[in-house]
Amino acid sequence: MEGLLNVVGWLTGLVWGPPMLILLVGGGLWLSIELGFFQFRYFPYIVKQTFGKIFTKPEGEGTVTPFQSVTAALASTVGASNIIGVPAAIMFGGPGAIFWMWVIAFVGMGSKFAETVLGVKYREKNAEGEFVGGPMYYMKKGLNSKFLAAFFALGLMLELIPSVMVQANSVAASASTAFNLSPLVSGVIMMVLVGMVVVGGIKRIGRVTEKLVPFMSILYLLGAVIIIFSNITKVPAAFGLIFSHAFQPAAAVGGFGGAAFAAVVRWGVARGAYSNEAGMGTAPMAHSAAITDHPVRQGFWGVFEVIIDTLVICTITALVILTSGLWLEEGAAADPSALPAMAFGEMFGPMGGAVVTFSLLAFVVSTIIVVIFYGEKQAEYLFGTAFSKKWIYVYLISIIVGAVGAAEVLWHFLDIMLAAIIIPNMIAIILLRKEVVALTKEFFTSEKYYLKDIR
């Protein structure tokens, strides 16, 4: 096992080295420049058009409401990556990794906006009358490349297997810490809960996520904020660690084994990318089903998604871990997944661990529900509807396999598979950037959209 871990770790480090950093950060920055850094210039307007319109009936065509589509997308992004990926980034890359998570969030807003806009522009209606879209469609129709579309679809279809395993593993670790529950039992419970929803399609997924995502987010964040306020005097020092170790890696101390600069960047960028999914091409599949009157309006929900996921939830998790001091305890690196439950347990007693485990279960179940939907759509695109319905069971079985698997091996395999879908998607949205710019200009200069809204 150690030899396998070393080989996989070496390969992951190679994949997530300078090339991936240039593609994600450079690509997102390039898109942001071409779009005139719209995420900063129109930030108040974007907030008003997203958070301010949650309960407003949308105009236009689509299958689900914009809020349902964004909660479905958030259900995919807000999950183990926020609660478990953050401590993993800290333990394997040091506190400075959080800084790189923020960097990838800000530049990722350009990528998330672009891919969402393209997803809506090139969406189609399937045989069941539902709107479907995503990278496969804008690669096939926008770039006229069936090969790239098929490569992406197959890569994502396979990448979601270790993704599901990582999500399941995080709940199993937390449940074992909080309740001494067998990972196998946790896996079976998750498989049953997920299976009951995914067979119902995007409409049922939308109904479940629009209720589950806000509830689970508030429950977890409330507990986390209480912990941070109880350690409020340590918050400045925590931010100091994040900024001071972003370019000068932290040395070995306590339970932390130290990290080289490359590891700081790799863990921050990889966990940030996996957390907000900017550039991965997954979110457009949920956003493409939304009722909207213009692709750019739905693109704003993509920006909103990154803000909530990385800048809010990931940062709060990082402060919980850093202010509690748990990352310095002996043996912490052996199981980063257990750190949030331990922090909540120290603050609230046995009930604290239960809160994290329940929140994590809700996060993970909703995440797995949506990523299975994504995987089903790839299988449908490549092999047809009949095959896609059977492929669901591969993901359901992966839940149990992941629950009893080794965390670090799963994270490394996930990172390798992530690269296989990020590379073709980022290439596609960069090549199609002129179309995104044209649609954005149309929206902000039209009397039907932006000019009408601000009046």
From TrEMBL:
NCBIfam families: agcS. It comes from Anoxynatronum buryatiense. The lineage of its organism: Bacteria, Bacillati, Bacillota, Clostridia, Eubacteriales. It is a multi-pass membrane protein. Signal peptide: none annotated. InterPro entries: Na/Ala_symport. Belongs to the alanine or glycine:cation symporter (AGCS) (TC 2.A.25) family. GO terms for molecular function: amino acid:sodium symporter activity. It comes from the Bacteria. It is found in: Cell membrane. The keyword Membrane applies. Keywords: Cell membrane, Membrane, Symport, Transmembrane, Transmembrane helix, Transport. This is Alanine or glycine:cation symporter, AGCS family. The chain crosses the membrane at residues 90-109, 147-166, 178-200, 212-232, 238-265, 306-328, 348-372, 392-410, 416-432. Its main location: membrane.
